[in-house]
Automatic annotation (TrEMBL):
<feature type="transmembrane region" description="Helical">
    <location>
        <begin position="46"/>
        <end position="68"/>
    </location>
</feature>
<keyword id="KW-0472">Membrane</keyword>
<dbReference type="InterPro" id="IPR025363">
    <property type="entry name" value="DUF4267"/>
</dbReference>
<protein>
    <submittedName>
        <fullName>Uncharacterized protein DUF4267</fullName>
    </submittedName>
</protein>
<feature type="transmembrane region" description="Helical">
    <location>
        <begin position="103"/>
        <end position="122"/>
    </location>
</feature>
<feature type="transmembrane region" description="Helical">
    <location>
        <begin position="7"/>
        <end position="26"/>
    </location>
</feature>
<keyword id="KW-1133">Transmembrane helix</keyword>
<dbReference type="Pfam" id="PF14087">
    <property type="entry name" value="DUF4267"/>
</dbReference>
<feature type="transmembrane region" description="Helical">
    <location>
        <begin position="75"/>
        <end position="97"/>
    </location>
</feature>
<keyword id="KW-0812">Transmembrane</keyword>
């Protein structure tokens, strides 16, 4: 049961990453504001596309591990991915115009990634019936 819930959360996180990455391509200003920073690109969205493709890749990788039933790979990916959301939180909080409200999505993501990553790594694999 724990594995199914963790897989469901991981799949939602992966799909969310794909969505967020795509938003950096199709609506870069909205994506940047949603991230929690103000950034005047002056019409050059190279940075947004770089961030977007990394998010899309991470989301696809996570979804692939879930669909391939690679429990340990999903757990490791979630746990190590918490570094990204934690760093994002620090970046958002480093801006004088932001507070905890703007950092909340990053805080929640960090907690979810750590909790479900640890759960997947601590859960023993279920033996499959022949």
């Amino acid at each position: 049961m724990t594995t199914k819930i963790s897989y469901s959360i991981a799949l939602l996180v992966g799909l969310g990453m794909i969505f967020l990455g795509a938003r950096f391509f199709f609506s870069p200003e909205v994506a940047t504001a949603g991230y929690g920073i103000h950034f005047n690109a002056g019409g050059d969205y190279s940075f947004h596309h770089i961030k977007g493709i990394r998010d899309i890749f991470s989301g696809i990788l996570l979804c692939a591990f879930v669909l391939l039933d690679e429990r340990r790979a999903v757990g490791v990916t979630l746990l190590t991915g918490s570094i990204i959301s934690f760093t994002d939180m620090l970046i958002v909080l480093s801006k004088s115009y932001n507070g905890v409200v703007q950092a909340t999505p990053h805080i929640v993501a960090t907690i979810l990634l750590i909790v479900f990553g640890v759960l997947l790594l601590a859960t023993k694999p279920q033996k499959k019936a022949l």
